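Q: Convert this sequence to structure tokens.
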Amino acid sequence: MDLNTIWENFIDRMILDPSITFAEKKLMAGIPFLYVTVSQHVSINQSTDAVKKHAVKAMKGKRLTLNLNFVRSEGNLYVYRMRFLVPQEKMFCCGNLCFDCIRFKDH
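A:
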């Protein structure tokens, strides 16, 4: 699964939204931030709902979860800390007789 492709798909969807005038992902200290500029009368709640809606569409058919936290706003610019999280899978047997042990999977 390529997270860059998912981010590109997500940003493309955001830009097509009529309430959003600009959307960009920026990495700072390895943490992805989403900068969203919205139309004049769009509230923080409407902006957050749009982000979630387009993230869900970008994640469709993938085993991902969304971590979204509002950081700050300045006028009609909203900044979110946003990550698409890949679920962890076991890579080795720890010896604790886990139900999802790697020994029981077909390779």
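The helical segments are 3-16, 44-59.
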